[in-house]
Design brief:
Two copies of one chain form a homodimer. Chain A is an alpha/beta fold. The first copy, chain A, folds into two domains: 4-188, Rossmann fold (3-Layer(aba) Sandwich); 191-351, N-(1-d-carboxylethyl)-l-norvaline Dehydrogenase, domain 2 (Orthogonal Bundle), CATH 1.10.1040. Chain A contains 17 helices and twelve strands. Chain A has helices at residues 12-16, 18-23, 37-46, 68-72, 88-98, 122-134, 149-152, 167-177, 190-214, 227-247, 252-256, 258-267, 272-281, 286-291, 300-317, 327-338, 346-351, and strands spanning 4-8, 27-31, 48-49, 54-55, 61-63, 78-81, 105-107, 112-115, 118-121, 140-144, 158-163, 182-187. An eight-stranded mixed sheet of chain A has the order 5-2-1-6-7-10-11-12, with helices on both faces. The first copy, chain A, has a two-stranded antiparallel sheet with strand order 3-4. Chain A has a two-stranded antiparallel ribbon with strand order 8-9. In chain A, strand 6 (78-81), helix 5 and strand 7 (105-107) form a beta-alpha-beta unit. In chain A, helix 9 crosses helix 13 and helix 9 crosses helix 15. The radius of gyration of chain A is 20 Å and the shape is globular. The interface between A and B is large, with 58 and 58 residues.
Chain lengths: 352, 352
């Protein structure tokens, strides 16, 4: 019997997941947050998702968040949590208000929760908060890996990683989601997948620096680009992802696999994190970029860096992270929180 | 005292290395092969390297290969071997004819030497062949990592890996080559660095497939690209590089570090291997590409695949490689040697 899914959060990624769900014959209920009102009205009227620029498959039911309980009903088999990182607290309250039984939750929210001397993975944070509020444990999984929503929304080949501390739960979701274009694989390395999912955005800023910097270099006889520099930064990003992941309890395979290098690769091809990097490469400070060319953009990698800066610095101070091995992380944190120009410390990369 | 280097092979990469050498005050002698006659004449006359489109620093002396012994003299401190993979045998004979003492050699030639049931690293092959011919052991190192010659030739930030089984030799070269734009690090993982240096070209063909394939897909409402597919292929490339490297005796760190993911990243941004992949994605066979749009191009990744196909298949047959873990390698080998269309086996990637 095909399943029923209720999606909370109708942004581009939550809504793109409608495609594999509908193609697998699921009953799909899409619930917008208070930010998604126009999206829900449009989907309800014509099926068109105005941010994806895609008409969603017929048969989707769209709801405003006030009707989340109604959407959930008693027959929802699982919930896809599609809110942005800033909406996680709100979503926990929303879930706690309506859940009467442990309906499994799968998250696509990327980010990490700052702790005094560490970082928490969102799925763990959500699970613990729900258990505290509800008195029972809700099964939780998450999706990582390289997935541009607009491509999934038109059924382009896409590979992801479904992670849960419960291997059977991850495998069950993977079986339910697989289509001829959507290919999830599974992992139990919660910290590894979540560190990569969050920090690939942060490090993509640095790789983007190289391409912006090119515009400020004197023109060369041979029209050379700046890909060698981008590759140094890409390599250092992978190296520091490895440091962070290991220190936080994740495994190396997540870093060199799809959640790490695969997702960093795609994140460096385009998007807001890269564009912030381009602007920093042109010589602007973070404040100048946010006051000017990107004043209306939420830049996930920058939001993450600002949210976790104090925790990471505390971990370095306590020796939980070796600061000599994180020169790019430190340069990015200084850029994002103290507005210093981003100036890659090339020689620290390979002597540290 | 500053050193004297003789470069054998005046192609773009051998010649680009002139920049850090000259900037470190070395005496540089550039020796062309029989293919480089026009380059050497131009460098001798005006300093202009016609393939790099860059005027080399003053003070370089240019020689035709007939004068290799004269160029080497008795004062050359080390030799940079800059021939293409097809020229390695020729270079060994050339070196054997003139070397009177163990002058250290550093190679930039990428490729692997096919053996009945394995693959040899070129630096090992060169060292063994020279010892056999000369009766003494010549110190050998090699350079891997992401380096586009045209960017190095105009002093763009560049990071590389100098590898030798002799750690002190690698460190000595790294100290001699470091400038404020050229940043070598060192490794003793000869097989890991050489497998990555060679096979990143081979796998970049597959990543390029995704972008060519896009042109054959029906246009989408939202102008979606095909980066998710490229990321699956990038991830699988890293995964199979890891399999090959481990089976051939290299270490994981070379694969997830600069020689592997760093170099694969830059190789996927542009170049002939990507262009072959683009054409395969459009639906052409390898033979059609070689007869048509790329008939005059040497495509390193394809040359490698054709050279090592029999060895890799023998290793799979003998159980030295697990063929279920190499679905992309097998698809590429079939495409390059049996002219089958390249059709990525998506589901084999994550069940293998």
């Amino acid at each position: 019997m095909s399943k029923t899914v209720t999606i909370l959060g109708a942004g581009v990624m939550g809504s793109a997941m409608v495609l594999p769900f509908a193609d697998r014959g699921m009953t799909v209920r899409l619930v917008g947050t208070h930010l998604d009102r126009a999206i829900i009205d449009s989907v309800a009227a014509t099926g068109l998702h105005p941010k994806l620029n895609v008409t969603l498959p017929k048969g989707i039911t769209a709801f405003h968040h006030e009707d989340f309980g109604k959407a959930l009903g008693t027959d929802t088999d699982f919930i896809l949590l599609g809110v942005a990182s800033a909406g996680v607290e709100w979503a926990i309250d929303k879930l706690a208000a309506v859940l009467k039984k442990p309906v499994p939750v799968i998250m696509i929210t990327k980010g990490m929760s700052p702790e005094p001397a560490g970082l928490g993975a969102f799925p763990d944070v959500v699970q613990a908060a729900l258990e505290k509020k509800l008195g029972f444990k809700v099964p939780v999984a998450a999706i990582g890996g390289p997935c541009i929503a607009g491509e999934l929304a038109v059924r382009r080949q896409t590979g992801t990683v479904i992670v849960s501390r419960d291997a059977a739960l991850a495998q069950s979701f993977a079986r339910d989601f697989e289509t001829d274009y959507y290919h999830p694989r599974t992992s139990t390395d919660m910290m590894g997948v979540e560190v990569c999912a969050a920090f690939k955005n942060f490090f993509a800023i640095a790789v983007g620096w190289a391409h912006g910097r090119l515009e400020n270099l004197p023109p060369s006889e041979n029209k050379a680009k700046n890909n060698n520099a981008a590759a140094i930064l890409f390599d250092q990003a992978v190296r520091e992802l490895m440091e962070l992941t290991r220190a936080l309890g994740g495994t190396a395979e997540s870093v060199w696999g799809m959640p790490g290098t695969g997702d960093l690769y795609v994140t460096c091809q385009a998007g807001r994190n890269s564009r912030l990097g381009n602007n920093l490469g042109r010589g602007l400070t973070y404040a100048e970029v946010k006051a000017g060319p990107m004043k209306d953009d939420t830049i996930e990698g920058a939001e993450l860096g600002r949210a976790v800066a104090a925790s990471l610095r505390a971990m370095m101070k306590a020796g939980l992270l070796v600061k000599e091995r994180l020169p790019l992380t430190r340069a990015l944190l200084d850029c994002l929180t103290e507005n210093t120009p981003l100036d890659p410390p090339w020689t620290a990369f390979h002597t540290g």
